[in-house]
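Hello K.,

You asked for the raw outputs rather than the summary table, so here they are, unedited. I folded two proteins back to back in the same session to keep the settings identical. This is the first:
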Amino acid sequence: MADPRIIAVDLDDKTIIWRNADVEQERRIAIFDLLEGNHFHPQRDYPQGYAGPYRIRLRVEEGRLAIDISSADGQLLETLILGLARFRRPIKDYFAICDSYYQAIRQATPQQIETVDMARRGIHNEAADLLMERLRGKIDVDFDTARRLFTLICVLHIRG
């Protein structure tokens, strides 16, 4: 019976060189929300017809995103490699708007915070659409899963 969902997420700590409290909070929320509800259906046939649930490990390797997909018992099923060139701009824009958002939370009016948050969500949504497009034919994900995965991809790109 198919169970196309993620049950565990691991980020390669060697890839993440710098974190602050805001980043840690984003990471925790993204992982929690992802595990609470997601759709993750690799399009490749696995041995013995395995169809989920999945454990994933995200890492950046030589400028590419590596997604290790494993079975529930931890057996590696495949590693999917995605070029990140098309994500450079969305990641940069997302970092910039998140910085503005965190500053606004500390010192702006509610209306200013809402404006920055709307812009942040817009960038995040566009990046999720891009991720869904890049995964097409490899892994079927829903929009919310793509949004949360993009957040985690951003965490992997944080530099001090």
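The second followed immediately with the same parameters:
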Amino acid sequence: MKILRCFDFFNPKKYYISMTEPQTLIKLIVLYMLDKVDFPITKAQIYDFILEKEYSNYFALTQATFELTEDGFIESSSTHSSTFLKLTDKGRDTLTFFQNRISEGIRNDINGFYEEHRLEITNRMSVITNYYRTASGDYVADLTAREKSSDLINIKINMPTEDSARAMCEHWRDKSSDIYSFILENLL
């Protein structure tokens, strides 16, 4: 059994992660993938790549992702339709020490994946939706359009039912650009 020693530069305490070599590699692949982008990406995008390349099975990958989140190496946030993962400073520091354990072939696969899917990944992150129930029983559709890491527009609309809030979120992806343009045209 291998032990990873991970250091938090803001706290001199060492973090020890005990895991077998394959589990170590899975975790390092996830960290490496998250380090390649400067915004959160969906867990599904990471899972699709790793499972398609057969670097792991679903259960081991789920366990690795859970442990990385629990240990503070990645952050996870969810909307009604997606879970997003983001690398933390602690995860980045750990990757710096151990990324040489990822073979050049795997790194090339990851880099190729991002080159091939950059537009798709960026577009997925440029339109973000969520809805939630308020204390009064209504629902709020939270709709955001982003460019790079800045919000262009964020709209929160109270809706009477969950179905209407969900529909609003589903249509936002296709209509956000038109709505943003309409608002700018009418307010300027």
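Residues 1-20 have pLDDT under 50 and may be disordered.

Happy to rerun anything if the numbers look odd on your end.

Regards,
P.
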